[in-house]
Amino acid sequence: xxxxxxxxxxxxxxxxxxxxxxxxxxxxxxxxxxxxxxxxxxxxxxxxxxxxxxxxxxxxxxxxxxxxxxxxxxxxxxxxxxxxxxxxxxxxxxxxxxxxxxxxxxxxxxxxxxxxxxxxxxxxxxxxxxxxxxxxxxxxxxxxxxxxxxxxxxxxxxxxxxxxxxxxxxxxxxxxxxxxxxxxxxxxxxxxxxxxxxxxxxxxxxxxxxxxxxxxxxxxxxxxxxxxxxxxxxxxxxxxxxxxxxxxxxxxxxxxxxxxxxxxxxxxxxxxxxxxxxxxxxxxxxxxxxxxxxxxxxxxxxxxxxxxxxxxxxxxxxxxxxxxxxxxxxxxxxxxxxxxxxxxxxxxxxxxxxxxxxxxxxxxxxxxxxxxxxxxxxxxxxxxxxxxxxxxxxxxxxxxxxxxxxxxxxxxxxxxxxxxxxxxxxxxxxxxxxxxxxxxxxxxxxxxxxxxxxxxxxxxxxxxxxxxxxxxxxxxxxxxxxxxxxxxxxxxxxxxxxxxxxxxxx
Length: 506
Fold this sequence. Notes:
By secondary structure, this protein is an alpha/beta fold. The chain contains 18 helices and twelve strands. The protein has a twelve-stranded mixed β-sheet, sandwiched between helices. Strand 3, helix 6 and strand 4 form a beta-alpha-beta unit.
């Protein structure tokens, strides 16, 4: 492809004069779009079928231990459940807890960079109001007085929504996103805004106004993304609850990398009003906590139905990490151990690459559409990683997108079929522990080694949870998936095999 072809393609896509400085990026995006257009035509959807019961795992997990909740425990280590009991008993109040967390943020976050904005005045008012309700026996529920932090693609009244980008409006927004309004109605104390990848896409970028968040288990490592600040803040004890977004796994990835619990409810369960879109048909809100019990409390308080029938047939989609991709030995062992604990039976879905292709095609096209003005007119203000992630969407054809929509329906049907045979599916989340944050080639390689995006394509509720630590001390994880509307069953099964980790950055 010569310069004239590149110029013609850029003109056809409406790219502005700023792209004259980036012909190599345009050529790469054109090549990516062309390869994906060919790949979509070759996509074959398989039919799920049960397999024989799995052999016993090689090594059993140690028994899960309860998170500490007594009066001698540092306040930042208390679970949501323990905080509620402490408020009810009167030996702790919301202002005291808030002060302790703000002190910890001031001490720890200069290393982690998990917060991009903190709002102490508003938080103190909310904490005092919650304390008065608790003292008068009028608590609004289990989230009353609980600190919560919000990913900075979600509107919080009085704070700007910068999306980790130079091109966004620095002025505070006037209204809360619907999810933030729901949290405030439950009495939650909003701490501030959390770091993200630019517009929740790309990766940890060092060419923006804010540095990327770090992994609290080892600050030289990637915390996952794009809800990177959420994973880091929850794992480090800066907040017991965080709200993120998940378009291709962006709640479950940092939960996996940082050793906490990440829940992406089913499509439409949590409202997206007031959330900066990335890909409107893939976007979900999600929650991060340090335990399944805390996740159940938060999910219930936010209005999720948590009915759970007794018993569950668990299907183990082992081929995702043994044939379609290859997981590290430690992650493979953690998955086998979890499967044995749950009495799982091997299950089959379409190849992982089919889901990944459809997620990528739709995300690129919808993401380019959502941010076309900035991509066309001011590309030099965007991170190079953002441009690389979204530019192929400028060259997606109608035929390619129509084929992707048809394939998406078939893939969704395949997962629905598997979930008629099983109540829960067990899969890998990440195929490897988080890599170093200063190794862009390794980040690019490992970012694709995951099994989270299938359930953005299909919309099913999915949860990632810790499954131990690697030999070098980094978190390992597994993923569970349920039928639409069965978040309650998902949490019940997760609690059966929970393996909570201790706290990062003691």
